[in-house]
Amino acid sequence: MTAPADRAVPDDAALREVALTRDEYHQAFDLLDRAPNAVELGIIGGMWSEHCGYKHSRPLLRRFPGTGPQVLIGPGEENAGAVDIGDGLAIVMKVESHNHPSAVEPFQGAATGVGGILRDIFTMGARPIAILDSLRFGSLDDARSRFLANGVVGGIAWYGNCIGVPTVGGEIQVAPCYAGNPLVNAMCAGLIRHEDLTSAAASGPGNPLILVGTDTGRDGIHGATFASVEDPEASHRGVVQVGNPFMEKLLLEACLEALTTGGVAGLQDLGATGLTSATIEAAERGGCGVTIDVARVSQRADRMTPYEIMLSESQERMLVVAHAGREDEVRAVFTKWGLHSDVIGHVADGQDVHVTEGSVDVARLPVSMLVDAPTYEFPVERPAYLDDVQQLNVEDVPEPANLSETLLTMVASPNIASRRGVYRQYDHMVGTHTIGPPGGDAAVLRIKGTDRAIALCTDGNARHCYLDPFHGGAMAVAEAARNVSCTGAMPLAITNCLNFGSPEDPAVYYQLSRVIDGMTAACEALGTPVVSGNVSLYNESGDQAIWPTPVVGMLGLLEQANATCGIGFGAEGDIVGLLGDTPPELDGSEYLAVVHGQVAGAPTIDLEAELAVQTVLRDLIQAGLLASAHDCSDGGLAVAVAESAFAGGIGVDLEAGSPHERDDVTLFGEAPSRIVISATAEAWPDVEHLAAAAGVSVRELGRVGGDRLRLGRIDVALDEAHRAWDQGLDTALAGRQSNG
Amino acid sequence: MRAAVIVFPGSNCDTDTHHALAEVMGVPTDLVWHATPSLDGYDLVVLPGGFSYGDYLRTGAMAAQARVMRAVREAADRGVPVLGICNGFQILLEAGLLPGAMLPNACVEFRCEWVHVRVETGRTPFTASADVGQVLRMPIAHGEGNYVADRATLDELHDNDQVVWRYTDADGRRTAGANPNGSVGDIAGVCNARGNVVGLMPHPERCSETALGGADGRMVWESVLARVAA
Questions:
Q1: Where does the pLDDT of residue A239 fall: very low under 50, low under 70, confident under 90, or very high at 90 and above?
Q2: Quick check: B24 contacting A, CB < 8 Å?
């Protein structure tokens, strides 16, 4: 596109403030056939930001499978996806990032991340029943990373505990690449009856728009645009929002109660870009225009400009579209809950968003141009770094002399050690749904009034994605599904958050494209469509981009809540076995990183084998044959066995077997598609029979019993290993030296 | 028999407590709004856990001023069993219906985990069916459960048999590791002089069904149901 040479263009600083390029300015000019004024430019910048407009990722995201018989609401349709779980019920779910704010103010950044994802769920009419948080930090040897990690955990606890939605799962992983750019991804799942699903559409011209909740302030202006550029520390000062979980609790209860009046036509939360995207997205869904008078918005700062009011990201606000004539009835509910509400405009004929301040026109823009951000696609070229990092010669990796010591080091390392010190700061029981608490492979929540339960987890191994974006992406989905399957639940669907560096860097663009391809392949193979998601790009600090970090939030269904399985070994004499026979390898393993300081190799997954293993695993659990099942992932077979022993409080005496000539490879290799199972001696022949019939190998390793962990050349006291595992993360988060 | 579970803005264990009473124990139970002026007709009043008014002031301080608290006081004066769980306990302290006060946990962190408590007295309606010395396993979930009282109050609690539960290990021993919040005397719950108003930090509504990992909380409900029926 060539712009007329005489066209006046705002200077670079003005364009940078709204995160638009010169070309994008010209596109906006041409679409309007005039120069946008300052307010309009702010609105366009917000809506065309990566955060709202997905301009670098939208073409790639279309590859995700988003349909299936279980999908009630697919990606992009509403604020979150909805999945049928039977009995007329649905789970509404989504995961979203709050990385950039958390890098600057970890407590409030994480807290408002939780607040934001909760609103995405109850705006659909669903009651939030579970929060999961997927976190990434730099090495905990670094004081700032500890400050960030402790602040983030504190903020999640503060918000979730106060509002009374249990935090039931998630992950914490550390790697140096996150030092300047931590990741905070919050997932929420809500429960609703199908017929109560509420749209965030502004339809029915004349219907009033009611803004409810916190008064609008100057906080968070440009949060969305700044989340879409590099260097969060420099960009985010002054734009971090402050949360109020009590206000959100009132909003949650009041909104759900208001929906029961029948006077609500649509409900939309205010998130990134505040009133701007809330009104515009609602108008798009309704196929209508909207008129907003900013003078009617209650403000908590003096002399706010229309620009500030439209772009404020003050937290805990909702936009309610009421049926004309019923606004008093709806507002009475908010008043009952002590909430202030204002009618700030109405749904209009036509297709424009029209902003006034009293009777003065402030902005008028077509909804269509705002919701259709320019998109960018780049060639997908394999970056050269892959050839270097994928080189791994096991013979060059020295085998430790004492594998017992190696196990103690591994179980105490921050990526493997017990998460108890973190999750006991989270109320994970409120709601009395949680029948499978944190500490297992996936959280299990019963659905009251039915025999059903759901399983939820988040997963995403960024090291694998860095080493092989396609296989890493597939493994993220596969591991999440495997974790859910370990509880006996059938994986139904995923939500996801894609955390990457700058898409303008060809290596990052390649990672993004290939991770999406890998996830797509796994979603198709495992029958788990993508129902919602979020993209967070420009996760860089200084020159360093983070590792490609897709976070997969998986939903599974147990038709019988009691036909579930835990990770802990059961009784003395039970037989322990390994389901699945992927050959051991060290590629991309935690062992290689922790013990040998190497990030190398090319992790791979065979999705057909994965499906077969998970299917037979669920059959074994449904048949009541297993005493335990635990995913074999970070730390490999040895760590999986140790964790099952810790959870069961009982030792084991096992052969490692010799699938690889080197014991460290057998014990600590992280080949996917493997599960450590145990069963009584009576049940074991049936386990073998069922597995054989499904064509899945099961290798008997030995017996449960005693107070030692004996596994091949590993022989340590269960107590000692348990202590190392129990204290590893707490020690690291406190900045103390480990005594292991 | 009819039970009331009070709903303050920010209560978040109200529906869980309602579920435990109505669905698990089969007791007709109402969720009662904080602006309600009277609790006439209720045989049991429960103040549930949560973060009333966000607990932005001292925990329970705002809720203690709610309109319904006059009715709670009247019900207590009539001898109706009143139970405050967690935030409900904090509210009863702030309302002066129970002696003592709460400080932030000694560990300065929120704690959600299973603990053991030992029944110290059977004189309250909520422990009448238990054996003194019986150890119950229950979950806690609080940031401010560090119960304190001055010397004179503690002596009075002791002399009047007003300490209802103490934190112990699984065998009923008072050990340093068994107290999750630093409360004085390992106190987990107390009652008023009359014995009908009781506060406790652990959540019996979270352990009234085995599916939730334990059902020791049923003792609290069974006790009070038996007492009201008698």
A1: low
A2: no
